[in-house]
Design brief:
Length: about 90
């Protein structure tokens, strides 16, 4: 499951290239965080429910981008667990 830089920038409503490096880094972090919270293995990652996963990744990208100075990661994790409830595995 991959969210591209262009998709993320559209979602964030960012038109300039000034923050491309930051957004690219956030995409990687958001993707890993969503995979960890969903407990989906690397083998099952590409076949997971793409709509739910994509929404969770985009939400996480937006959250990390908007709250980069004062992010509440506990609240983010709770929100992700709620978003991913239907696809979250019992464990790795």
């Amino acid at each position: 499951m991959e969210v591209t830089l262009d998709e993320a920038k559209t979602y964030l409503r960012v038109a300039s290239i000034d923050e491309d490096e930051l957004i690219t880094s956030i995409i990687g972090s958001a993707t890993k965080l969503v995979q960890d919270v969903s407990r989906i293995s690397d083998e099952d990652w590409e076949t997971a429910d793409s709509a739910v996963i994509r929404i969770a990744i985009l939400y996480t990208i937006a959250y990390l981008y908007e709250h980069r100075e004062e992010a509440d990661h506990s609240q983010l994790n709770l929100t992700l667990r709620a978003l991913l409830f239907g696809v979250r595995e019992e464990g790795f």
